[in-house]
Amino acid sequence: MTDNDKLFIGNAISHLNNKHIEVIFSKQNNVYQEHEKIKCTGYFDCKNKSLVVATGLPQKNWLPVFLHEYSHFIQWLNKDKLFYKLIENKNLQNYFWYWLQGQEIRPKSKVIESARAIQTMEYECEKIVFNLLQKNKLSILYQDYVKYANIDVLFYNVVLKYRRWYDIPPHTIQSILDIIPIEPIDDITKVIPLFNELVLKNCFK
Ligand SMILES: [Zn+2]
């Protein structure tokens, strides 16, 4: 961890604590967000006022997670419309996850609408991270993070098609990193040649 990383994390924790958000660094490799029951590496819960990050993995893996969750906090603080739309409309937030867990949600357009709302909100969050990375010289490279963010947001399109979450995160697969744009994408439904094929081949057990 560089001095700049430490300084950034320290300032971010002060910012969170000043707004009465509890910061929890779990020693596990994964954490579970209550309502989704989906394994993840961190989350920001504005209702219970906590930000949780799994720090069992090396710092190069969890620092991007911390940045992402901190940026959700910024969305909450800034009263971001997309963020609040999902908090205030539970169906919009949950239909996609319920459908993924096997529930029948009809018509399917409700699932797609839910996925698009989540993707759009998530990518707005990533844009806050992009900005933080450009302003602070952290050990995470801007271009590397943009690739991760692009992969994560485009992965929802694969889920909508095949109704499966990954076993192995697609942003850990080199052949996927090799084909993904290194600049922010302007369209969350963008079709990247070979992306679906490589996810199907590498990310599902
Ligand atoms: Zn997120």
Low-confidence stretches: none
Bound molecules: zinc ion
Tally the structural domains.
1
Overall shape: globular
Strand order of the largest sheet: 1-5-4
Distance between the termini: 33 Å
Q: Assign the structural class, choosing from mainly alpha, mainly beta, alpha/beta, alpha+beta, or little secondary structure.
A: mainly alpha
Oligomer: single chain
Query: What is the number of helical segments per DSSP (H or I, 4+ residues)?
Result: 8
CA gyration radius, whole angstroms: 17 Å
Q: What are the secondary-structure elements, in order, as H or E?
A: HEEEEEHHHHHHH
Q: What would the average pLDDT be, to the nearest integer?
A: 95
User: Portion of residues in helices?
Assistant: 55-70%
Percent of residues in β-strands = 5-15%
Biggest β-sheet strands, sense, barrel: 3 strands, mixed
Q: How many beta-strand runs?
A: 5
Report what the structure shows:
This protein has one domain. It has eight helices and five strands. Strand 2 and strand 3 form a beta hairpin. Helix content is 57%, strand content 9%.
What does the secondary structure layout of this molecule look like, with pairings?
Elements (H helix, E strand, L loop, with lengths): L2 H16 L3 E5 L4 E2 L6 E2 L1 E4 L4 E5 L4 H19 L3 H8 L1 H11 L7 H28 L6 H21 L11 H6 L15 H8 L3
Parallel strand pairs: 1-5
Antiparallel strand pairs: 2-3, 4-5
Bound molecules: zinc ion (ZN).
Keywords:
two-stranded antiparallel ribbon, globular, 5 strands, 8 helices, single chain, 9% strand, three-stranded mixed sheet, 205 residues, binds zinc ion, mainly alpha
